[in-house]
Amino acid sequence: MSTNIKKSYEKFLNGCKDAYVLQSAAGIINWDMQTKMPPAGIKLRGQQASLLQVILHKMITDPERGKLIESIMNDPGYVNLDAVQKRNLFLAKKVYDENTKIPESLVAELARQRTITIDVWKKAKAAKDYKIFKPELEKMIELKAKSAEILMKVKGTKTPYDALLDGYEPGLSAEDITRIFNELRAGLVDIMKRVKKTGFVPDASIMARPVPIEIQHKISEAAMEFIGYETKGSNAWGRLDETEHPFTTGYYDDVRITTRFTENWWPRSFFTVLHEGGHAIYDRNYPRKYIYQPVGDRCSHGIHESQSRFLENIVGKSPEFLSYVLPRLKKIVGKPFRGIKVKDFVAAVNRVAPTVLRGQADEATYNLHIIIRFEMERDIFAGKLSVDELPDVWNKKYKEYLGVDVRDDSEGVMQDTHWASGSYGYFPSYAIGNIYDGMFVKKMSRDVTGWRSALKRGEFKPVGDWLIRNVQNKGNLYDPPDLIKEVTGDRLTVKPFLDYLDKKYKRIYGY
Questions:
Q1: Active site residue 400
Q2: Is pLDDT of 73 > 90?
Q3: How far is CA 264 from CA 204, 206, 258, 402, in A?
Q4: Which terminus in the chain has less CB density within 10 A, N or C?
Q5: Average model confidence (pLDDT) across the chain
Q6: Phi and psi for 249 in degrees, rounded to 5?
Q7: Mean pLDDT, rounded, for 333-345
């Protein structure tokens, strides 16, 4: 590498570092808003969030930064850069090209509106009154539509919604996802029919046995310790707090998770901690040498979700892990868990039963919740679905796809924070993450033949090490399709996930 290009590249990396540091600070501001901030602080917080986003936007759209990236990529010495350096420049240029087209005023307005909409969503959800939420949701959708129209031209996508999807899962369009989800839905319906035909109905009361909140905190601590999420001691890099809607935020050495405790539904916090802990461990295990660089970040939200759902489902709901954890839960919980047998516990945790709540859905029906949200988002940004129609369409789809009745908008169209947050295009990542997991578990089962036996002994390391080595340590070195090919040797396919579910339910339901 010539002296000139070396200096230019070092200058480029310094700019990347400043942006990542500021971005991580904005994440903590958002975490505080949803965990510790007093209610009266919402107006000031909106101004803080808006200003931080404007500063960050100025930083990553600085014309001098654009010229620097261009000069490096056009330098004769560019051919001598290694794959990581070229990937850093590619990713940075993509971010620069997209963000320079978004007006600063729109960036500020989106950040401000996000703060307002989340706050109103919380109040409307508590009041079970969509009318309170609708005006602010409409503003948020209008702003995201403006942004999507601009990004569609920059990204070269067919539709505005495709542009939003690209921000979460590069390489997949709404057309692609529709095709994949149609295949997924058909396979899930088939599995559900086989399960129902057995006539076996696990005892769900095990899941609803009252467990005091203070005891659930101890269960959460045990779960975090099992997966290696460190919240205690001088080397702790995480913490657990409570929110209405759980989330994870952070970067490398400060990654925080939240959960929600419900006395009459103890699994909510337990599996949420495993889920959010999976996110956190991914954020912790990006390549350490690439900190503050574009390659030292997530590959995509779908890959991120694959890591959280792997711990929640592939590990957390496996018969092997459940047989290991039940005696320990009995010791922590005491009387409420007395007399529970392993077979009944495994069946209860893995019970296939449609519900109106995504957060309480089983592995088979969960993806139908996501398909509903995806179809609605796709139609919103295609101009086929208005804000006024959302509750009715939501309720009709829940009846058609899951056979359940939605009692009110709090458990219906307002049950998630994503639309209030402006995270349109995020929902498909959950189901795509599950599909990735099917491919990962198939490959891991060939590489680590004893991983299930290890879980039964209470050893997470074989699974954790495989995920770190094959997925997490690769950071953002690849686009999702290329990462999947690199890890599994195959292109994206639904079959391994459906095979995984079928094998699991066949074992539990005996069909």
A1: no
A2: yes
A3: 12, 10, 19, 23
A4: N
A5: 96
A6: -145, 150
A7: 96
